[in-house]
C-alpha cells in the first residue's frame, strides 16, 4: 500500500523530522477534540435517527415476551434438534479431551449454522410476504428431506398456529386493534413463525423488525437445545444460563440472523451435512428422551 | 468400451454453445431403444456404446476432456427420456474439480432431465472430487411427467469426496454446492408440457466463507471423507425402495450397548459388521413419495461397497440379489462407478 504520509525509516533518524512528527500529532489531537465538540453540537440541534435504534414500543415488547416464553405451548421441550443423537454418536468414539460442555458448545455452533442456511430464509420470506405462505410452506416441505426434522418442524408449526387460533386471535389482536383475517395456516414451524409474527399487525415491514423476528426464533432454538442438554445431564442449569447469557452466544445468533436473513429460499440448503446423518439416525437410538 | 461407440454427435454440434449437450432417448416400435439425438460440445463429451439387439437400456458416459473440469468450465446437459425408454448415465472415474483461478467464475455443471411417463433414468456417476481451492456449483433438475401413477422412475446418486487425500487435501475446497431438484410437469391448454410443482429439493452447501463460526469446513465434516445422497422414486424401483426401507428398519440400534458384541435380539449380518468397521453412517427417509438415503463414511471404499450393496439389494452375506431391481430393469453393468 502506497501512502504519502508513510514515514520512512531513514527520515526518522534526523532529529528535525522527529520534532515535526510531534507537531503533527498535536495538531491531530486538537482537530479530533474540535470534531467531537462539533458533533455534540449537531446532536443537540437534531438527534440523528439512524444512529440510535428505534425504541421498542410496549406492544412489541409484549409480543416478544409471549413468543420467547418457554411456557409457550408449542412443545419445543420435546425436541433436541438432534443433540441427543449427536451425543450418543460421540459416546461411541469417546475421546477424553472433550468435556460435555465443549461438545455442547460445538454442537450449538453447528446447529446454528445449519438452521441459518436451511430454515431462516423461510422465516424471513414468510414475514416479508405472508400472502405467499402456502407456497413457502410447500417449498419448505419439499426441502426438508429428513423425516425426523420434518416431524419436529410440522409439530411445532401446527402448535404455533393453534396458539394463534385459540389465544392470540381472541386476545392479542383486539388488544392491538388488529382486524382478524383468515389466512393460510402453515404446517412448518419456520413459515408459521414468519407469518404469525407479521399477522399480529404489531411489527412493521422493516429490516429492524425482521431482525427481531429472526433473532427471537434463533434464540428460542438455542434455549431449546440448552434445555435438552440439561435434561440429558450434559450440563447443569447454571451452566446453561452461563452459555445463554454469554456474549459469544449472542454473537453466534446475530451472525446466524445476518447469514440466513439475506439468503433467498431458492438458495437455502444444508451447510452441515453431518447433521443430516445424526438427525436421521435419531430414530435408531436404543433409548431416547426426545422426538428429534 | 465398445469400439462402435457413437461419437458422431460431436461433429454435428458445432452450432451449440461450449459445454452444452443433449441426450434424447426414444423407444421405436416394437422394442428398439435409440439415441434419437446426441449432441455435445467441448469440454463435455458423451459416449454411448452401441446397444445390443435386446438391450433393456441405453448407457451414456458423461465425460470431460482431460478427466476433470477447470475453473470457469460450464457444462449444461439436457436429457430427454421418452415413454418406455430407459437411460443410464455413468462416468469413467471421479469428476475432478480443479482449483479456481482468480479471474475465472466457479465451475458449474447443470443437468435438466425430463422423464416421460413409463420412462426411467439411472444416474450413477463416480463421486465428485473437489481439489483444494476449487469452487463448484452443481444443479440437477429432474422433471417427472407421471407422478400420479408414478411411472416416471428415477434413481440418482450424488456424492462428493474430500479431495486428494494423498496430497493432504481434506475438504480444502473453497466452495461446493450441489442442488438436486425434482419437479412434476404440467400440461398447458396448448398442450405444452412445462415444469410444475416442486416435489423435492436437496441441497448441500460447503462453504469456507462460514469458517468464521469458529470451526473450519474440515472440522465441520467431522472426520467423514465422503457424503452420498441417493434419491429414488417410481414404480420400476418399488422393490428397491422396499428393500432399502426394510434394511433401515432392521438397522442395529445405537446407544449405550455395544451393538456388535452385546447380546441382542439377533445376530448382525456380515454386511452390517463391514459397514460398521469402515465407519459408514446412513439414514433413510420416506418423504413426499421419494426414498431419500444419506450415507457418509470415514473411508471412500467402505462407502462405495455399502452403496453398491444397497442398490444391488445384497443379502446379509453381501451377495447381490439374483432378481435385483436395477439389473432386472436395466441389464448388467449398471454399477461400474461403484466398483
From TrEMBL, chain A:
Matching Gene3D superfamilies: Urease accessory protein UreF
Region listing for Disordered, in residue ranges: 1-25
Pfam families linked to this entry: UreF
Highest taxon, organism lineage: Eukaryota
InterPro entries documented for this protein: UreF, UreF_sf
Record's compositionally biased regions (Polar residues): 9-19
Keyword Chaperone appears in the UniProt entry: yes
Keywords: Chaperone, Nickel insertion
Family classification: Belongs to the UreF family.
PANTHER family on file: UREASE ACCESSORY PROTEIN F
Protein name: Urease accessory protein
TrEMBL record, chain B:
Keywords: Chaperone
Name of one Pfam family that matches: UreD
MF terms (GO), sorted A to Z: nickel cation binding
UniProt cross-references to InterPro entries, sorted A to Z: UreD (IPR002669)
Coiled-coil segments: none
Entries under HAMAP family matching the protein: UreD
Family per similarity comment: Belongs to the UreD family.
PANTHER family associated with the record: UREASE ACCESSORY PROTEIN D
Name used for this protein in its record: Urease accessory protein UreD
Amino acid at each position: 500500500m502506497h501512502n504519502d504520509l508513510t514515514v520512512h525509516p531513514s527520515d526518522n533518524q534526523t532529529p528535525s523530522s522527529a520534532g515535526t512528527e510531534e507537531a503533527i500529532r498535536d495538531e491531530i489531537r486538537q482537530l479530533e477534540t474540535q470534531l467531537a465538540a462539533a458533533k455534540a453540537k449537531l446532536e443537540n440541534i437534531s438527534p440523528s435517527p439512524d444512529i440510535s435504534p428505534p425504541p421498542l414500543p410496549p406492544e412489541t415488547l409484549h409480543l416478544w415476551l409471549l413468543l420467547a416464553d418457554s411456557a409457550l405451548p408449542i412443545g419445543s421441550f420435546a425436541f433436541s434438534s438432534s443433540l441427543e443423537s449427536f451425543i450418543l454418536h460421540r459416546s461411541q468414539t469417546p475421546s477424553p479431551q472433550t468435556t460435555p460442555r465443549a461438545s455442547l458448545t460445538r454442537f450449538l455452533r453447528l446447529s446454528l449454522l445449519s438452521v441459518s442456511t436451511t430454515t431462516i430464509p423461510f422465516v424471513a420470506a414468510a414475514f416479508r410476504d405472508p400472502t405467499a405462505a402456502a407456497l413457502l410452506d410447500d417449498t419448505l416441505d419439499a426441502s426438508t428431506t429428513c423425516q425426523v426434522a420434518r416431524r419436529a418442524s410440522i409439530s411445532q408449526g401446527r402448535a404455533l398456529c393453534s396458539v394463534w387460533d385459540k389465544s392470540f386471535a381472541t386476545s392479542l389482536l383486539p388488544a392491538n386493534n388488529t382486524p382478524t383475517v383468515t389466512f393460510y395456516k402453515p404446517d412448518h414451524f419456520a413459515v408459521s413463525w414468519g407469518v404469525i409474527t407479521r399477522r399480529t399487525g404489531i411489527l412493521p415491514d422493516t429490516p429492524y423488525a425482521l431482525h427481531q423476528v429472526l433473532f427471537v426464533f434463533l434464540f428460542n432454538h438455542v434455549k431449546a437445545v440448552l434445555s435438552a442438554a440439561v435434561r440429558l445431564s450434559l450440563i447443569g442449569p447454571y451452566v446453561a444460563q452461563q452459555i445463554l447469557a454469554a456474549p459469544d452466544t449472542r454473537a453466534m445468533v446475530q451472525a446466524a440472523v445476518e447469514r440466513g436473513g439475506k439468503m433467498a429460499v431458492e438458495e437455502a440448503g444444508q451447510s452441515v451435512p453431518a447433521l443430516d446423518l445424526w438427525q436421521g439416525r435419531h430414530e435408531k437410538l436404543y433409548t431416547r428422551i426426545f422426538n428429534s | 468400451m465398445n469400439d462402435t461407440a457413437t461419437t458422431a454427435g460431436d461433429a454435428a454440434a458445432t452450432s451449440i454453445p461450449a459445454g452444452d449437450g443433449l441426450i434424447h432417448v426414444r423407444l421405436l416400435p416394437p422394442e428398439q431403444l435409440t439415441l434419437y439425438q446426441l449432441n455435445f460440445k467441448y469440454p463435455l463429451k458423451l459416449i454411448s456404446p452401441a446397444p445390443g439387439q435386446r438391450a433393456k437400456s441405453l448407457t451414456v458416459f458423461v465425460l470431460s476432456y482431460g478427466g476433470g473440469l477447470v475453473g470457469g468450465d460450464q457444462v449444461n446437459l439436457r436429457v430427454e427420456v421418452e415413454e418406455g425408454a430407459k437411460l443410464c448415465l455413468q462416468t469413467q472415474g471421479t469428476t475432478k474439480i480443479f482449483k479456481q483461478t482468480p479471474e475465472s467464475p466457479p465451475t458449474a455443471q447443470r443437468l435438466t432431465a425430463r422423464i416421460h411417463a413409463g420412462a426411467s433414468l439411472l444416474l450413477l456417476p463416480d463421486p465428485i472430487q473437489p481439489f483444494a481451492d476449487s469452487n463448484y456449483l452443481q444443479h440437477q433438475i429432474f422433471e417427472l411427467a407421471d407422478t400420479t401413477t408414478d411411472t416416471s422412475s428415477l434413481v440418482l446418486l450424488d456424492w462428493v469426496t474430500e479431495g486428494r487425500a494423498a496430497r493432504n487435501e481434506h475438504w480444502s475446497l473453497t466452495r461446493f454446492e450441489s442442488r438436486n431438484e425434482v419437479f412434476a410437469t404440467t400440461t398447458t391448454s396448448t398442450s405444452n408440457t412445462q415444469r410444475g410443482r416442486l416435489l423435492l429439493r436437496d441441497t448441500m452447501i460447503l462453504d469456507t466463507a462460514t469458517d468464521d463460526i469458529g470451526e473450519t469446513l474440515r472440522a465441520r465434516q467431522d472426520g467423514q471423507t465422503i457424503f452420498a445422497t441417493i434419491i429414488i422414486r417410481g414404480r420400476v424401483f418399488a422393490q428397491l425402495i422396499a428393500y432399502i426401507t426394510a434394511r433401515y428398519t432392521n438397522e442395529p440400534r445405537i446407544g449405550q450397548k455395544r451393538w456388535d458384541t452385546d447380546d441382542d435380539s439377533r445376530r448382525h449380518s456380515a454386511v452390517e459388521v463391514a459397514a460398521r468397521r469402515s465407519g459408514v453412517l446412513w439414514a433413510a427417509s420416506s418423504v413426499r413419495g421419494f426414498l431419500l438415503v444419506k450415507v457418509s463414511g470415514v473411508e471412500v471404499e467402505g462407502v462405495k461397497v455399502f452403496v453398491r450393496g444397497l442398490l444391488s439389494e445384497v443379502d446379509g452375506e453381501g451377495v447381490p440379489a439374483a432378481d435385483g431391481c436395477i439389473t432386472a430393469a436395466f441389464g448388467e453393468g449398471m454399477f461400474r462407478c461403484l466398483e
